[in-house]
């Protein structure tokens, strides 16, 4: 397996791990008139990214590689960062948009690497994840106005 492809798949695993906790943070601390809808939306999103984390890690295993599997590794490798701040609902949503855009850029690069390796299964997995993130980006942008 191409070293860069393996690295990118591990970065994606790390990013989805960090997003899992970040989305929980937002789920727990969102306030205001949109509490109920955003509380539920953040829960839907953290459940979704958990699935992506698992799928990407299992793809690495299927390819005979080892996915990262500790919080320390995730925090060291992730390109999206944890948050401790408690902002407005719009600030929280904007942070999710920014992170999803960053992850999608990495997905695009990783899809290209998978295509160059002739790894259509990995490419297909990443295309599906990208399509979902892009739809969420659109919907969340619409929420922000």
UniProtKB/TrEMBL annotation:
Residues covered by the Ferritin/DPS domain: 7-144
Classification via PROSITE patterns: DPS_1 (PS00818), DPS_2 (PS00819)
Signal peptide range in chain numbering: none
SUPFAM superfamilies found in the cross-reference section: Ferritin-like (SSF47240)
GO molecular function: ferric iron binding; oxidoreductase activity, acting on metal ions
Superkingdom assignment: Bacteria
Pfam families: Ferritin
Gene3D superfamilies, per the entry: 1.20.1260.10
Family classification: Belongs to the Dps family.
Name listed for the protein in its UniProt record: DNA starvation/stationary phase protection protein
Taxonomic placement: Bacteria, Bacillati, Bacillota, Bacilli, Bacillales
